[in-house]
Amino acid sequence: MSRETLRERLEILADAAKYDASCASSGTAKRNSRDGKGLGSTEGMGICHAYAPDGRCISLLKLLLTNHCIFDCHYCVNRKSSNVRRARFTPQEVVDLTLSFYRRNYIEGLFLSSGIIRSADHTMAQLIEVARILREEHQFRGYIHLKTIPEADPELVAQAGLWADRVSINVELPTEQGLTRLAPDKNGPRIEGAMGNLQSAIVEAKDASRRFRAAPRFAPAGQSTQMIVGADGASDAQIVGKASTLYGRFGLRRVYYSAFSPIPDASAVLPLQRPPLLREHRLYQSDWLMRFYGYAPAEVQDAADAGGMLPLDIDPKLAWALKFRDRFPVDVNRAPREALLRVPGLGTKAVKAVLAARRHRTLRLEDIARLTVSVRKLRPFIVTADWRPTLLIDRADLRARLAPSPRQMELFA
Ligand code: SF4
């Protein structure tokens, strides 16, 4: 038994979990305990989502069951060869912590991952046990996200989906070469095989629930994955390509991008510097372009430079528009939704508002200005009843005019 107190172990294992970004709780089924039965809720009043300054969700109790691990992934602070303090919880301890934090309204659910102890099967069984006790013995109806272990028996991985709202398997790195070099114990085809199994189970469960009301639910919030950005030499274009393949093949709800951050006692094969956090942000923006704006992966890749990297000073939508100027200007009073969605500065809500408003009147520049943060960015790309960007779209200095001005770094920021 560990000599650390529960509080010390909580500090170690909550800190060790911070490198995993895939903790958003969107998309699950609505459940609550307003009928007086059970405990917790995935919805409704009294549940607040809190986000860390870097945008990550912190309203889930985010823990590792243990940071002991028999694997040696170079980018991971918990790898076998790392010299970190180790700790471990029993499944019952994680259950007790979850319930006590939930009752104090500190959290809305649990995000549980783990290093691999003894074997992948043993670890997976322990993770499942936490979710089973919460659901079966405590009627816990809050959100549960379980990280699953691709090396575990598929039967065990499938059990995780019966208790959890969301399951995830980290694809870790965008290329097979990167995985072989930095995570020698992991195997790309095996990771994708496990994702495929989860996808089949999710689809089958959805199909069954359409036909039988009592059909067991399986990971109703779907599956997600995470890619580490900047630990290997993969370009943004490669990352975008990998993400789109994963969305297409496994119906993922989300791909999370986590900018590699240098870890204590880092392996010598890792870069010394972290990639700019803005790179992670640009990848999220490109992800949105594919999922909500109708861009094909190749189009997002076209926004990158010759080395496959997305610009950091402007967003990928603007970068694409500047490269494909022949697609502009777009007449906001006539263009179809797909063309409006390509206009830099017009989001999905603004496009919806444009489509609704133009049914009743002809739109002027001031109407569009009300829908966007900065009409300056839009003007070169649109035509309205009273505005046409003569020559503006062809100006050689258009990029410089639209890019945000560089800011002096603050010495004491
Ligand atoms: S399997 Fe790899 S990434 Fe996961 S905890 Fe172990 S060393 Fe870290």
**Coarse structural class:** alpha/beta
Distinct helical segment count: 15
- Describe the largest sheet: 6 strands, parallel
Could you say which small molecules are bound to this protein? iron/sulfur cluster
* Multimeric status of the protein: single chain
Separation of termini? 44 Å
Number of β-strand runs: 8
Name of the CATH architecture of the largest domain: Alpha-Beta Barrel
Name the average pLDDT: 87
Trace the largest sheet across and list its strands: 1-2-3-4-5-6
Order of helices and strands: HEHEHEHEHHEHEHHHEHHHHEH
Query: Runs with pLDDT <50, length 5+?
Result: 24-28, 42-56
Strand content: 5-15%
Give the CATH level 1 class of the largest domain.
Alpha Beta
Count of all domains: 2
Residue share in helix = 25-40%
Gyration radius, rounded: 24 Å
What fold name stands as the CATH topology of the largest domain?
TIM Barrel
Q: Tell the overall outline.
A: globular
